[in-house]
Amino acid sequence: MIYGTGIDLTEINRIQTLRQRFAAFVPKVLTPAEQDVMNKLKGQRQNEFLAGRFSAKEAYSKAYGTGLGSAVGFQDVEILDDDEGKPHLTKQPFDGPAHISISHTETLVMTEVILETVDSTR
């Protein structure tokens, strides 16, 4: 059963600007494991990765029903790719399955998160 859905649309250039202006932006948004992944990327791909994780965490907080804040913060959610490149939530405050999709164009990143409850009566 679906608990919540969330979507987000983020401009990659806006995230790039925040990254350039504020040294604390990346460690605020990304967990250490996510930072390690981003640091292995080059050029614009780093900005796409950062914008994707930022947007996905926004979408997650919407699916959770609280938005970003005390209930769900950037460090409470970690998204890493599997061996085939599919993103997975490896850390989250929700006690149930979570599904995530991240897609981008040259200028925008769009994310969707679906949180699911497990019905133990089935």
From TrEMBL:
Cofactor(s) recorded in Swiss-Prot or TrEMBL: Mg(2+)
This protein's record includes keyword Manganese: no
Biological processes per GO annotation: fatty acid biosynthetic process
Keyword Magnesium found: yes
InterPro entries listed in its UniProt record: 4-PPantetheinyl_Trfase_dom, 4-PPantetheinyl_Trfase_dom_sf, ACPS, Ppantetheine-prot_Trfase_dom
Compartment(s) of residence: Cytoplasm
Domain called 4'-phosphopantetheinyl transferase: residue spans: 5-105
Binding site residues for Mg(2+): 8, 58
Enzyme Commission (EC) number: 2.7.8.7
Reactions catalysed according to its record: apo-[ACP] + CoA = holo-[ACP] + adenosine 3',5'-bisphosphate + H(+)
Any one Gene Ontology molecular-function term assigned to this protein's record: holo-[acyl-carrier-protein] synthase activity
Domain of life: Bacteria
Record key words, sorted: Cytoplasm, Fatty acid biosynthesis, Fatty acid metabolism, Lipid biosynthesis, Lipid metabolism, Magnesium, Metal-binding, Transferase
Main location: cytoplasm
GO cellular component: cytoplasm
A Pfam family hit: ACPS
Protein family per UniProt: Belongs to the P-Pant transferase superfamily. AcpS family.
Function of the molecule: Transfers the 4'-phosphopantetheine moiety from coenzyme A to a Ser of acyl-carrier-protein.
Protein name (record): Holo-[acyl-carrier-protein] synthase
Species whose genome carries this gene: Furfurilactobacillus rossiae DSM 15814
